[in-house]
Every structure is written in structure tokens, then in C-alpha cells.
Amino acid sequence: MNAVAIIAGKELRDGLRNRWVIATTVLMAALALTLTLLGSAPTGTVGVSALAATVVSLSSLTIFLVPLIALLLSYDAIAGELERGTIALLLSYPVSRSAVVAGKFLGASAILAVAAVLGYGAGGVALAFGSDAVEPRAWAAFATMVGSSVVLGMVFVSLGYVASACVRDPRTAGGIAIGVWLVFALIYDMALLGLLVADQGRLMTVGLLDVLLLANPADVYRLLNFIGFSDVSRFAGLAGLTQQMRFGAPVLAAVLSGWVVLPLVVAMLLFKRREV
Question: What angle do CA 216, 79, 21 make, to 5 degrees?
């Protein structure tokens, strides 16, 4: 456990040295502040709080932004060090390969957590001082959005390590990472929508649709944030889905956590079999 903490600390220090923490925090803060200032404009006509509108806007943005940042942080964590030869030096110490992967994962996750909490938190602070009193449930939705954004980032850090453990060339790992991002952020939902249109309700039942949505961590994240709170689901146009969805917030949170653990275990197994 001490080795894992040391490696995680090194990854976090490298992130600070390479400006990853600063860059991602500034980017998230800028986007959060922009969406916070713009997001309150339509709330008077739809009857929801400005914070609920901000949660919808930031959640929609997070699905594209956070996975991409997470994959950029992780795609060369193993393949890049294999190419540079530093991983062999690290493994010459009494540390297991699983500890190496776990430590790198925790370090990259810490970078994402700092960026999300500080960046999105800036938007929450601006909204707290710049608007009327907000209901506690709206703040609960905002906190859920920030926490689940960190977990979503951890999912794609794990997937990035799978890509990095599969190949020796970091450029190939980068190509795989971009492909993973395209599939989960864009292609999967487009294919699912096309399937729904082509099926026209013949075979695609509500239960089957729920299961297919759970197969995409971005969709699990979206559902967790959009259907758990009435104001958010109404502003997102998903009030009907809230009534039909068979899985509640605890199940969705467990599935999203499972998406973190499973790829991480796969990455550890792949790295154990890799010749250094």
C-alpha cells in the first residue's frame, strides 16, 4: 500500500509539473463560469432554478470533455514508459505490477478530482453569490454532478490504461484512446438511436433499452444526473424517462463504479503478462 501511495504521489507531482492540474482546472472553471452565467437565462420561462439549468449544461459538457481529458492523461502511462525504458527501472524495485497500475490510476484520478472540484466549484460559488436562494435539492444535484464527473473521469482513466497496456507504441495507444472516446461519447448513442428508429418498437422494449444504456458509462452518468432530481429532469426534457427508468440512482452509481473497477482489473492483468 505504501508503494501505491508513493507512485500516486509521483503521478500527481508530474501532473503539477506538466501543468495538467492547472490547465484542466482553468479549463473547467472557465466553462463552468460561462455556463453558469448563461444558464440562468431560460429559467424564468421553464420554472426551474438557475442551478438546475447549470447542472444540465455542465453534465452535457462533461460527457464529452472529462472522458477526453482522462484518456489524454492515461493513454501513455504504460506504453510511454515502456518506450522510454523507465518502467523497467521502476519494476527493479520491490513493487508489484498491480501496485504500479493502481498507483498511476490513483494519481491520474487525483488530478481529475482536483480539476473537477475546483473548476466546477467555481461555477457553484459564482451562482451562490449571484442569484437568489437555491433549494437544498438543487445543491444536492450539483454535488452529485461534481462527484459523478470525477467517477466518470476515473472510468476513462481505467479504459486508457487498458489501451496503454495492450500495445508498446504510445502513438498506437493514443489512437485506441481516441477510438474509445468516439465510441462512448458519440457513436454508441447514434447507433442506439438508429436502432430505435429502425425497430419502431417491435423488439426494443423499455427493459432492453435500460440494459443497453448501462453498457455505456457516459449514458449511465447522464441518467444518474438527469433523472435523480425533478427540476433537472424537467429542464433536460427527461421527465417521461424518469417515470419509465427501472434503475434508481443507487443502481446507476454502482454500475458507474463497476465501470471503474473492471477495466482497471483488465489493465492490471494485461500489464502482468507484458514483457518489459
Answer: 70
